[in-house]
Design brief:
Elements (H helix, E strand, L loop, with lengths): L6 E10 L5 E11 L4 E6 L5 H9 L6 E6 L2 E2 L7 E4 L11 H6 L9 H14 L15 H13 L5 E5 L7 H18 L2 E5 L3 H7 L2 E6 L4 E7 L11 H18 L1
Parallel strand pairs: 3-8, 3-9, 6-7, 7-8
Antiparallel strand pairs: 1-2, 1-4, 4-5, 9-10
Helix pairs in contact: 3-4, 6-7
Length: 252
Amino acid sequence: MATNEGLALRHISKRYEGDAGAPVLEHVDLSIRSGEFVSIVGASGCGKSTLLRLIAGLDSSFDGEIDFDGERVVSTDLSRGIVFQDHRLFPWLDVEQNVAVALRNAPLNKHDKARAIAEHIELVGLRGYERHFPHQLSGGMAQRVAIARGLVNRPRLLLLDEPFGALDALTRSRLQSELQRIWAHERITMVLVTHDVDEAVLLSDRVVVMQAGPGRIGEIVDIPLPRPRDRSHADVTRIRDEIVARYFSEAA
């Protein structure tokens, strides 16, 4: 890929000073093309969420370099949105107001902000719920609000840290399908951290399998399947089983 397009991680290493300098990540190299959907999977403690925080610019204490679209990542930036497992909505704000929070520092006038908010609430299928408060929403609906908030600034990169991990299986399945639709519509770069190999294969162009002790990339698996994908399709199941057999059975 071109050096000034997409996401590039070069020789990333990370230690936690409070744990006697124990290594969390070691020599991670990864290139992600603009518009690509990449998932990062691995056992607990392999550093996948830590890696996502470094990409987001939430932690600058690491060795190596992270570049996004030709610029060094040194802190948070509106070009990189993030969605966490916990939706983190403000309970005293309604849906529209929670999405609007992300536009507080955006260089837009009042009219353009209102239009962007309305467009993204509709994008995640919540038109008609603008005046609802978080306690009036299901877990899946609240997470849709969080996704709308992550996208409303029109970031070029959306980072997702196990966004469906706390949801029941049926809601998670529905939101996975919704995320497929949103990615196809927006065509921005997406990086998903997940413990769910099925989810990774269903959604991704490539799956990065991380190993622990310290965290490093064990394998990168291409998913050359047409979209939209059906989780019960034989090829989806086959690739999932291959990843689990090659890595997760050894880690057990």
